[in-house]
DNA sequence: TATTGTTATACTCTATAACTATA
DNA sequence: TATAGTTATAGAGTATAACAATA
């Protein structure tokens, strides 16, 4: 009661984002750029349109992010095999390894967070968290009737 | 288990931030500017240095935010009573009312989120959330040994 | 000498609008 | 005509460095 549900959630927010923007291998990757790499790692080679849709961001924005990621050697633009308007984005081998390690590390963090909850509280905790997420989604949808529902 | 604790937390993060950046009274306030107003509302009139420290942001950044908030009529710069180098920031009456309503609305959101958790799960949920926040703080502190501990 | 806030400069993320090349 | 990506332009947040006025 005392620290406030809101405050705790915001603290978690803050810490999670800090963790997500982590620097790997001395390469200072920003959160937005890691988000692009994450899409490519999880769904495989994609067009910029697909990345833009996945991140809910304008295609123009993806162009800029990919420019930077290409310059830093994380992403390659190759010709799309069937559509000559489109670009095929793929991770470089080094970036692929980086993301693989990042996936492992995130799994470890997730496990550590689960372990931090007392065993007897875990099920109730997860049910509660899901309920809060769902309710928040409803509240946001009510506040922004025009916006789409995708996360 | 299936959606992933991480993903759910990130969804909540996303939704909370969306809610926090809400537009009030047709005034499009950004998250960063609301953060400044929030400090002034909760700790009262402050210097820019104090706001910068509270937000963990450079004083230069606060100058820019206050410039914008002054132009939009939310904040006033008045002479500091004892230190002529410093500026005393205070909310305008309209912004004060705005922030008061915002506090009420946040309390309502907090109550709605609490209500969304099944009564039998509430205590375990809150214990679990606190534990996760604490563990996350440890993990971040370990990853960034140099950074300060403030939220 | 140290502190408060500013000007100067730069980088990043994001958006809209207009344009080119291709479907 | 519609779509993929680009150039052009703009606003917002953030940072460092140098500087003025004041302590």
Question: Could you explain how this protein is built, in words?
Answer:
The structure is a homodimer of 151-residue chains. Chain A is globular and about 55 Å long. The first copy, chain A, has helices at residues 5-20, 31-43, 48-55, 59-71, 93-116, 122-143, and strands spanning 75-79, 87-91. The first copy, chain A, has a domain at 5-95: Winged helix-like DNA-binding domain superfamily/Winged helix DNA-binding domain (Arc Repressor Mutant, subunit A, Orthogonal Bundle), CATH 1.10.10. In chain A, β1 (75-79) and β2 form a beta hairpin. By secondary structure, chain A is mostly helical. In chain A, strands 1-2 form a two-stranded antiparallel ribbon. The longest helix of chain A is centred in the last third of the chain and has 24 residues, at 93-116. In chain A, α3 (48-55) crosses α4. Chains A and B meet through α1, α5 and α6 of A and α1, α5 and α6 of B.
CATH structural fold name of one domain in chain A: Arc Repressor Mutant, subunit A
Helix/sheet category of chain A: mainly alpha
CATH homologous superfamily placement of one domain in chain A = Winged helix-like DNA-binding domain superfamily/Winged helix DNA-binding domain
First-last Cα distance of chain A: 29 Å
Outline type of chain A: globular
> What is the subunit arrangement here?
homodimer
Highest CATH level, the class of one domain in chain A: Mainly Alpha
Instruction: Give me the count of strands of chain A.
Output: 2
Q: What amount of the residues of chain A lies in strands?
A: 5-15%
Named CATH architecture of one domain in chain A: Orthogonal Bundle
CA radius of gyration of chain A is 19 Å
Total DSSP helices of chain A: 6
Provide the low-confidence segments of chain A as ranges. 147-151
Helix content of chain A: 55-70%
